[in-house]
Write a structure and sequence with these properties.
single chain, 286 residues, mainly alpha, 2 strands, 64% helix, elongated
Length: 286
């Protein structure tokens, strides 16, 4: 019998024994209300020693077992060793095994409600798999959709976009994170990039709405700041927006994206736009 066939027999036997052991332990855990003992395993670095040079196979077996275990929702104390199973056992045996990072973080976040634990696991996966954009994307979406932490979400989306094969939707998410953070100029730059490289009419339309509105917001911010500077310098409000350009406070008085001039009230110094913001008119699919 070759070494490979011997190992295959050993794996099959171990799998059968492990399945039977898991079943008995689950039954015992349900009977004794102490299912946490089912979760105990040595860390991955010790299990590598007994894997006979096949840590990936052992990682796969433990991963399959973990899916079966977490399918038993009635097991008490079931999340006690959750981070140990995925963070210290499976992903130590095979750091390049992407699925356990994704499924483990999903269980941690959606079932156990521990979002920071999920992010720790995803961070470990990102460090070990620098070409797998799905890992920082999942971390970013968790920060955006659940934690509403737009700063961290933006960093994760940036990391995902630095990896090969990242889909275009991440570029749109990144652009919107900076908008939510109040960085209108960076958001405008990213939405402009999305618009200029859009492959579909839908993406071109949606991105243009963002470019349109953000352009107005940036223009208004610049003009209002220039009016304030003019007043501070001259002790009075400018008679019109053209005076800002004459004073060198703006390079030129801009028009809005529709080609309309901005409104200015010389009595109050208020600057506004006559153009409606397009995002307020979006269809549900946008």
């Amino acid at each position: 019998m070759t070494a490979l066939r011997a190992w295959a027999v050993l794996v099959v036997a171990a799998s059968a024994a492990g399945a039977a052991w898991s079943s008995r332990q689950l039954d015992r855990g349900r009977a004794t209300a102490d299912a946490a003992q089912v979760l105990y395993l040595p860390s991955g670095k010790y299990l590598k020693v007994v894997s006979l040079g096949f840590p990936e196979v052992l990682a796969d077996l433990i991963y399959i077992w973990s899916i079966q275990y977490y399918g038993h929702y009635e097991a008490p104390d079931r999340y006690r060793y959750l981070e140990h199973i995925y963070g210290s056992v499976i992903t130590e045996l095979d750091p390049r095994y992407v699925d356990p990072y994704l499924i483990g973080s999903m269980i941690m976040s959606l079932e156990a409600g521990d979002h920071e634990m999920a992010l720790r696991l995803l961070d470990k996966g990102i460090a070990a798999n620098p070409r797998e954009w799905i890992l920082p994307f999942e971390a970013g979406f968790l920060c955006f959709n659940v934690l509403h932490d737009h700063e961290r979400a933006a960093r994760y989306f940036e990391a995902a976009l630095a990896m090969p094969g990242a889909p275009g939707v991440i570029r749109r998410l990144r652009a919107e994170m900076y908008n939510k953070l109040g960085d209108k100029r960076r958001s405008l730059a990213y939405w402009t990039e999305v618009h200029e490289t859009a492959a579909t009419d839908y993406v071109k339309d949606v991105s243009w709405r963002h470019v349109h509105d953000l352009t107005i917001e940036v223009h208004l911010e610049d003009l209002r700041a220039a009016v304030a500077s003019y007043r501070e310098r001259h002790g009075r409000l400018p008679a019109g927006l053209e005076a800002l350009a004459s004073a060198g406070l703006v390079a030129a008085v801009p028009l809005d994206p529709s080609g309309n001039p901005y409104r200015y009230d010389p009595a109050t110094g208020a600057v506004s736009s006559a153009t409606r913001f397009q995002l307020h008119q979006r269809s549900p699919r946008s």
